[in-house]
Automatic annotation (TrEMBL):
Gene3D superfamilies: Dihydropteroate synthase-like (3.20.20.20). Belongs to the vitamin-B12 dependent methionine synthase family. This is Methyltetrahydrofolate cobalamin methyltransferase. It comes from the Bacteria. Residues 309-331 are annotated as: Disordered. Pfam families: Pterin_bind. Residues 315-324 have a biased composition (Gly residues). GO terms for biological process: methylation.
Length: 331
């Protein structure tokens, strides 16, 4: 069975076909969050630290750390701030350091800027997940050497120089190309986590079916783990959390092994824990039973994060304790 190992300083998370579904918290991302972007521009990391704690309390096993879309207010004062290569690398280092100071879960280093990716890798303790590489030739040549240098797993997004294809056959071919190119660098398939790209169901009625079919093919033909931006499926729809909560267990049943998502949403987390139980990835329903009182606590006035933290007091769902990481090869 394919296993992708991600580590913090003291904890190990395994993404795999026979493992509990890996929840990757998406909240540390200023894109589309004007308040957070303004705080980061002012050197204020309070929301970042709060979001890190809250996501872990709610069940995130890995935290995505994204350093994009900041410093727009400073562009007029200093033209350097219009250059992401100037802005993102130091910010990524600070974000990783701040997050690691308040929680001890593995990280997913997320940026389109290679310098930011490397700064995040250098600052991260353990073995983070790198997000991401695509099938674009320039991106392959920039990111795959970093993956090899730091000996880390990487998210492979199924688009290339032609953009995002609505044809699932094309998206599968791009994923296959990335896996093959990674092998040329000595990167094994178990360190590739493919994002087959989830289209909005409101714009494409077959979007869900496409993803489920792609996930099965990626598992059976390429032997890779998979992830996605789970909320993309409900983009533009009312009651998005209801759609997401239906999509996630269906994706899990098809073989998807992780998702970048908002773990603070109670309905989605309940759906994932139920799916883990039904897929026999929760021995004797221990985690389901442990979190069964969360809904009652929320109805009684507690926040989902607070109730989840109390339920998790005996140990984190899906996580594995491990010795100190540090298996990365550094140049």
């Amino acid at each position: 069975m394919t296993r992708t190992v991600i580590e913090s300083k003291t904890k190990t998370v395994v993404i795999g076909f026979d493992e509990p579904f890996c929840v990757i918290g998406e909240r540390i991302n200023p894109t589309g969050r004007k308040k957070l972007a303004a705080e980061l521009e002012a050197g204020n990391f309070e929301t970042v630290e709060k979001d890190a704690r809250e996501q872990v309390a709610c069940g995130a096993m890995v935290l995505d750390v994204n350093s994009g879309a900041v410093f727009t207010n400073k562009m007029a004062e200093d033209p350097r701030y219009a250059d992401n290569n100037f802005v993102e690398p130091p910010l990524m280092k600070e974000l990783v350091t701040r997050v690691q100071s308040v929680v001890d879960v593995p990280l997913c280093i997320d940026s389109s800027v290679p310098g930011a990716l490397e700064n995040g890798l250098a600052a991260a303790e353990g073995r983070p997940l790198l997000n991401s590489v695509t099938g674009e030739e320039e991106r392959l040549e920039l990111v795959l050497p970093l993956v090899k240098k730091y000996n880390v797993p990487v998210v492979a997004i199924s688009n290339d120089d032609t953009g995002i294809s609505p044809d699932p056959e094309v998206r599968f071919a791009v994923a296959k190309k990335i896996v093959e190119r990674a092998a040329d660098f000595g990167i094994p398939a178990h360190d590739i986590v493919v994002d087959p790209l989830v289209m909005p169901i409101g714009a494409m009625g077959t979007a869900g079916q496409q993803v489920f079919t792609l996930v099965r093919r990626l598992r059976d033909e390429l032997g890779v783990n998979t992830t996605c931006g789970a909320s993309n499926i409900s983009f533009g729809l009312p009651n998005r959390h209801g759609v997401n909560a239906a999509f996630l267990p269906m994706a899990i049943a098809a073989g998807m092994t992780s998702a970048i998502m908002n773990p603070v949403r109670k309905v989605e987390m309940e759906a994932i824990r139920a799916a883990n139980f039904l897929m026999n990835h929760d021995a004797n329903g221990a985690e389901w039973i442990r979190f069964a009182r969360v809904a009652e606590a929320v109805e009684g006035g507690k926040s989902f994060a607070e109730a989840s933290a109390e339920a998790a007091a005996g140990g984190r769902a899906g996580g594995r304790s491990g010795g100190r990481a540090g298996r990365r090869a550094r140049a």
